[in-house]
Amino acid sequence: xxxxxxxxxxxxxxxxxxxxxxxxxxxxxxxxxxxxxxxxxxxxxxxxxxxxxxxxxxxxxxxxxxxxxxxxxxxxxxxxxxxxxxxxxxxxxxxxxxxxxxxxxxxxxxxxxxxxxxxxxxxxxxxxxxxxxxxxxxxxxxxxxxxxxxxxxxxxxxxxxxxxxxxxxxxxxxxxxxxxxxxxxxxxxxxxxxxxxxxxxxxxxxxxxxxxxxxxxxxxxxxxxxxxxxxxxxxxxxxxxxxxxxxxxxxxxxxxxxxxxxxxxxxxxxxxxxxxxxxxxxxxxxxxxxxxxx
Length: 294
Fold this sequence. Notes:
single chain; mainly alpha; ABC transporter involved in vitamin B12 uptake, BtuC; 14 helices; globular
């Protein structure tokens, strides 16, 4: 099997293990956020933030902080990482700033409109900046991900971001969970729903940066939607849902990596493909249960 060769042959292991390690961090980080994203119907917000990363990639290219084709994998190092992270955080904050909050009567732009503006604006800016840079960078790998682009710095950074996400969610779990299930009730009981929304947007930006190198800009959002959607099909108990989401996410990442190794396909589409199959299976299982009960 190619998987065994790539992971345990000394000639290849140094190239591929960072991607696998980063993938596990991505799985844990996206799984816990995915439940909140699905509950709050924020999938499109994740899409806007993930596509904003393309603008950060273009800015890094113009500043000469990405490697050309044939050289070391692009975006290794603190400066490149910081630019893309800053761009995604800025996009998240901008979406939150210009969109209407909480369905109240405040004047403002609806969330879907704000997301669409940020999404297309960032993608257009990234494309223009990449064209201006003219450094021969293989930007297609950023759209769909590549195991070869993940280095030790990326793997370590992914785990740092994953741990930060888990710590923040644990610290604010009461208010965030209340807000996720019943926003008007949470607001009535004094929960700062605006802060909850802002925290989630920032964490979505961190998750996007963590998953972008492996899953790609286009498919990063799938990691923030599918695990939670699958888990909510299988259970209605919160902590059971979180546990299922984590398990599903880990299986999806590892299964996708194995498929990528064996058939030499991009890892991002493979991971999303495995998760999509799992979602279809969960839907069929749910329908069968419903038909048996009736």
